[in-house]
Amino acid sequence: MAYRVMLIENDRLLLEQLAQSVQGAEGFQLVARYQSANDALGQGKMFKPNIILLNIDNQDGATLMERFIKVFPEASIICMSERSQAEGVSSMVQAGAKGFIIKPFTSEELKESVETFAQSGMEVSSQVMTFFSPKGKSGKTTLIANLALALGRRTQEQVGIIDADLQFGDMMAFFNLRPKATLVEAVQEIKFMSPVTLHNYFVPVNQYVHVLCGTTAPNLIDRVSIEGLENVVRMARNLFHYVLIDVPPGFNPTSIAAAELADTTYVVTMLNGGYEIQHTRRALEIFRDWPDYSSRVKPVFTRVPHCDIATQQRLEQQLGEPVEAIVPNAYQVVSAAANNGSMAVDIEPDSELSQSVGRMVEKIVGHHHIRWDKP
Question: Over the stretch 145-159, which tens digit does the pLDDT of each residue have?
Answer without folding.
Answer: 889 999 999 998 889
